[in-house]
Each structure stands twice: as C-alpha cells, then as structure tokens.
Amino acid sequence: MNSFLLSALSKLGFASSETPTDDLVAGHAALVQKDFATAFKKFKRAATQGNAAAQIEVGHFFRDGLGIRPNLVKAVHWYRLAALQGNVMAQFNLGVIHNNGEGNLQDFTEAVHWYQLAALQGHANAQSNLGLMYEKGQGVLQDYAEALNWYRRASEQGHLVAQFNSGLLYEKGEGTTQNFAEALKWYRLAALQGHSEAQGNLGVMYAKGEGVDQDYKSAHMWFNIAAAAGHSVATQNRDAMTQNMNAQQISEAQKMARDWQAGRILPG
Fold first, then answer.
1. How far is CA 169 from the centre of its chain?
2. How far apart are alpha carbons 64 and 60 in whole angstroms?
3. In angstroms, what is the C-alpha Rg of the chain?
4. Which one of 13, 148, 194, 217 is most buried, counting C-beta atoms within 10 A?
C-alpha cells in the first residue's frame, strides 16, 4: 500500500497505534468469545493495513455473514487482496467460489487460475480439485495425464478423494498406461481412510484378480465394509460373492470385516 493511500486512510479513521498483528490477535480472541462485532472491527482494521491473514478473515465474515449481512462480492474482494499476496487459503477459496458458482460467480477459467496458484504451493485440496478440472475439461482443455499429475500430488499428501481418482485413472488407463497394481494401491489407501467407493472397487479387483491374486474372502470383506457405509452396489456384490464361497469362507470374511471395524490390522 503506498504512502498516499495510507495518508488518506488515516484521515478516514483507519490509523491506529496497534499493529496489524495486534489487531489480528485481538480479532481471533474476540472471535473465540463470539464477539463478532469486535472481531470484525479488528480484522477489518488490520486488513485495511494490508495484512493478508486479516484480509482472509474479513472475507470469511462477508462470505458466512458472521454478525453482518452476507456479501459475496465483498468476500471475493478481500479474498482476492489476500490471494494476490500469496495467501494459499484465499487462493483456494476463490477457486471454490468460482468453481461452484457461489453467488452466480461461476467461472471455470477463474477457478482453474486460483486452484493452480494454491496447488503450486502444495495445497492438497486445490491439487485434487485442479485434477478434477483437467479430467472434466472445465476451464481448461481436458487432459487425463495432467489430471493424474495433480491427483498424484494430492494423493501423496494423503488426500483420499485424489487417491480414489488416481485409482480410477490407472484402472481405466486414462492419462497413463492401464495398471491394475497401481489402481489397487491407490484404492487401498483411500479405502483404509474410509472411502466407500474405493472399498467397493477394491472388492471388485480382488474378486476379478486384477492387480492382485484372486481372493474371494478379501473381496467379500471389502464389499461388506463398503455396504455397511451404505454403498448399495457393494451390497449387491457382497451378496453375489456368497454364491462362490462356502460357509467357512464367508464366516472368515465376515470376521475380517469385523476386525476392520474394531481397528485391528487387516491382512496384507
């Protein structure tokens, strides 16, 4: 912010002996106490002095309507100020707003722009969302290889949706050579985090012997786990599996599923 503008703001009453950091701390303390009026005042003063962390807080206030009337245009204004300073959360939030079309602001090209900036800073959610934009061809030319690139980056940070999507692309051979072993790897990582679709797909791979030795018990186990989470196709697949299993195998598979729910270590 230039000196002329600071001088002008001073005349408008924004000058303070407190530093932006002091106001930010005071704003957070007020927010904990649910004193939204004081929090907003402190954040706004720090934000006006160029503090990016305060700017994103002001953006939250306008986006969520915390003690003030919601105003998405103003929220975007403050997020943008923070984003232009490199604030990764502001960049991600702008991506989400334009991606989802909040307040009729849908703009896939703009979403890609902000996701890209956040993704390059290592933001896993932005990386995963950017991968989806490339996979769908929204705001950017469809490119499965680039989608997989961003999914992999997010996956390696433990992002379960990106892990599942990585598994899908490897299973289909989209953007890469079809590789069932890699698909199995990423499905398993997502499944272990509770992703029901990954659990169901993992069951299919065990049932078919894709990327792993055919194993009806493991297939039944994963179908059972996914079914318990409400995955209807997994329920159908689990019941179909019983036609190829004897009573002892079914009992052992059910025990494996119970061990999962109890948090005990699963077989390799």
1. 18
2. 6
3. 25
4. 148
Q: What is the pLDDT of residues 161-197, one digit of tens each?
A: 999 999 999 999 999 999 999 999 999 999 999 999 9
Helices in the chain by DSSP H: which ranges?
3-12, 20-32, 36-48, 52-64, 72-83, 88-100, 108-120, 124-136, 144-155, 160-172, 180-192, 196-208, 216-228, 232-241, 247-261
Amino acid in the structure at residue 41: K
pLDDT digits (tens, 9 = 90+) for 71-100: 999 999 999 999 999 999 999 999 999 999
Pull the structure tokens for residue 167: 């598994």
Q: 51-70, pLDDT tens digit by residue?
A: 999 999 999 999 999 999 99
What's the 3-state SS for 161-206? HHHHHHHHHHHHCCCCCCCHHHHHHHHHHHHHCCCHHHHHHHHHHH
